Amino acid sequence: MNSSVSIKDLSLDFGAVTVLKNLNLEINDGEFLVLLGSSGCGKSTLLNCIAGLLDITEGQIFIKNKNVTWEEPKDRGIGMVFQSYALYPQMTVEKNLSFGLRVAKVPQDEINKRIARAAEILQIQPLLKRKPAELSGGQRQRVAIGRALVRDVDVFLFDEPLSNLDAKLRSELRVEIKRLHQSLKNTMIYVTHDQIEALTLADRIAIMKNGVIMQLDDPTTIYNEPRNLFVAGFIGSPSMNFLKGELVNREGKIVFATNDVLFSLDGYKAGEALEVGRKVVLGVRPEHIKVNEATALGAEIHDATVDIEEPMGADNLLWLKHAGHTMSVRVNGARRFGPGSAVKLGFDMSVASLFDAQTELRI
Amino acid sequence: MSNPVTLKNVNGGAALTEKTLSGPSGRKPRRVISGRNIMLYGTLFVAAAYYLLPLYVMIVTSLKGMPEIRLGNIFSPPLEITFEPWVKAWATACTGLNCDGLSRGFWNSVRITVPSTILSIAIASVNGYALANWRFKGADLFFSILVIGAFIPYQVMIYPIVIVLREIGIYGTLTGLILVHSIFGMPILTLLFRNYFASLPVELFKAARIDGAGFWQIFLRIMLPMSLPIFVVAMILQVTGIWNDFLFGVVFTRPEYYPMTVQLNNIVNSVQGVKEYNVNMAATILTGLVPLIVYFVSGRLFVRGIAAGAVKG
């Protein structure tokens, strides 16, 4: 595989605080990689290291197979889009786009050509003579993307580019960024704390916590086979249901037991041998619990009571009590139950997750 | 208005209004003359009078002749307005050896203030920018030393500086005084600029670096155009500070280079002859006129700049 950005044993300390620890990451040519994590996990710091805006403590960074560890940001072949747009307020859109080219002393007719192309791709031709203050948030972010576009860079770096926009604009620009990536086929590294952005945009997602990548996989794998408890809890809204319990032997079969309620593990593909007595956590996503569906319930049926019902339009979220745990279950928005009603639950173990209670790793 | 549809709408609207308008509605009426307002405006008036009365007395006295002043009614307006004291203060009052009034001091002060202001702001703005955006090694130490410098009393440093200037060979010259003013303006101005540049979004600086701009290009093409308010603040601080300076003017220059403040003192404190209060008042107002005009012209920007610098630091 042709690698575009490659990070080797990267560490970064701020005084006594270690922000990034021995981080390794290979990003393929043309790949859309999302760095996902809650604030303070080091994802923006990592992006700033790749951009060359922060001096790293140890390790190496390669872009297009060239060691750029000691290079200036402008010599790395990267363009960056910031959360606050970072447009130069005193310059028109056109001057904003051309600033980097003028600094690099690119001939004027070449500048004009590149601006015209970027303006066409991003549909900002009518805005070229305006100042940033006269633009809406979405238009500003488009110009900010254009600034990276005109410089003809190998790698686009996005630092939470949509976080300052309202929900509607955010989903529109999300689609546009995806379209841009499909047509440009550049390598893009995108930092966000929004899991929807991560799941919809990414070829691969790197989930970070405390300066360490917890899991690096494509969105489907991340969603269906989280490698540990943190990833499982971070992805998905509402969060995955976690049931603490242990593995017990029941008539020759190994089953999961919590508060004296037994769950068959039929269909679960364990990566290692299951041993009786092991303390484990069973994780089931709200949409993987079936309610009152005779055909889908399977062999094992659990009785539960609806506690609270949250209609969300397309979906209907049920909070119910079962086996001493509060669980959330997502059903079709048309199906209404009402609080207090008794329901029958079926657990789909083929898409469930089992974690070791001690190591928090997937079994 | 004969359109029946419109009429019907108006009626409907009226009926609706009638229904909602029972009981209190809209803004609650307040009495203009209340105890609260009397206290508020009374205090404001007294405070304003307290500050304006001395100015009034000065202006009125400077427009009177000496016989009228001797009558002793310092608050009464002049019976006969005369500009003689102003002319005398500017052109013929004796300050020590020379008898050409404040005019010489005025031009000396201009020749001191303008270069000192430009020089100190030029250096301090680059200092502040470097401290805020380029976190070089030892930046914190450098900044601490600079800030401590702002708290050391000037008097402590007078002798060493006299010796340094003498050794360089510029003691007693305008150049020497300009240098001293620029150096003493450095701590507070650097602090001011550093805080202002630190309050600008750091992402702008990052974006400019990715665009390939260097230290000076970012400063001149990105930072400077956004910094007009803070430059105005710095200019006002320096112009008024240097213009009003007395100590350095006496210590570091010779009589022919004395700034306006020193000459004013020589006029007002001269012990020979009659005390000419009207000339003294006129001379004082003339000396204070420059800072006053600076404030009036750029007061709005001053407030904006102070506020901008104060938000983050």
TrEMBL record, chain B:
Keywords: Membrane, Transmembrane, Transmembrane helix, Transport. Gene3D superfamilies: MetI-like. GO terms for biological process: transmembrane transport. One of its GO terms (cellular component) is plasma membrane. It is a multi-pass membrane protein. It comes from Rhizobium tropici. Residues 106-298 form the ABC transmembrane type-1 domain. Its main location: membrane. Belongs to the binding-protein-dependent transport system permease family. This is Carbohydrate ABC transporter permease. The chain crosses the membrane at residues 38-59, 112-132, 141-162, 168-197, 218-243, 281-303. InterPro entries: MetI-like (IPR000515), MetI-like_sf (IPR035906).
